[in-house]
Amino acid sequence: MTELLPAVLLGYLLGSVSGSLALGRLRGLDIRGMGSGNAGGTNALRSVGWLFALGVVVIDIGKGVAAALLAPLVPALFGETQIVAPVTLAALAGLAAVLGHVWPVYFGFRGGKGAGTAVGVVAVVAPWCLLPLVIVWLVTLLGTGYVGLATVLAGLSLVPSMWVFAPSPVAPALGGLAVALAVLLVFTHRSNLARLKSGTENRFEKARLLKRRR
Q: Domain spans of the chain?
């Protein structure tokens, strides 16, 4: 069990490397003081531009991938006998990476909402969930134009997808990861949901295909 703490710590420290904040420092800007104030890809796109946003997304997804891939190697690095299942280490480190993105130790615990990093983790530990997740996200975005709503619904889709599309019985760690990520994404997007309820949420009109005719 001694490998659990190093794996979780590794995931958290990797997750704390925020793409928008790290790239922003190189350009002398803080994305948290621009646009919506969120240190994520959507705000980076709206506030700085597509090239900057692309770098942000690559870093944020990449650190989720790295956390899930590297965590199972921790016992070997420390010369420990493998006790905890690799999938459990990957899931816990992946969740820690998402938490690190939301509350990054390097940036005053003020980060993004965790969606990109969550996608990276899921791509490694439960790739069968990716297609349903992307479909739900795209359909919601194209139908409504609301990025936050699309992300929340895509996150919630992880829970049924984890079991329905799994090629084999789902490990308890993966089931717990799906629920934890879904809950976390709802929490981090609570301001978006509040604005949706009040009718003040920003809409990405260029992505919206189903527009109301006047």
A: 4-207
Please give the Cα distance from 180 to 183 (Å, whole number): 5
- From the CA atom positions of the chain, what is the Rg in Å? 18
The tens place of each residue's pLDDT in the chain, 214 residues long, gives 678 899 999 999 999 998 888 898 888 888 888 887 777 788 888 888 889 889 999 999 999 999 999 999 987 776 666 788 999 999 999 999 999 999 999 989 999 999 999 999 999 999 999 999 999 999 999 999 999 999 999 999 999 999 999 999 999 999 999 999 999 999 999 999 999 999 999 887 766 776 654 4
Cα separation, 188 vs 42, whole angstroms: 14
Is residue 3 within 8 A of residue 71, CB to CB? The reply is: no
What is d(CA 191, CA 205) in angstroms, rounded to the nearest whole number?
A: 20
The CA distance from 73 to 3, in Å, is 9
The CA distances from residue 85 to 1, 4, 72, 77, 171, in Å, are 10, 10, 8, 15, 10
CA contacts within 13 A on the Cβ side of 100: 27
pTM value is 0.90
User: How far apart are alpha carbons 131 and 86 in whole angstroms?
Assistant: 24
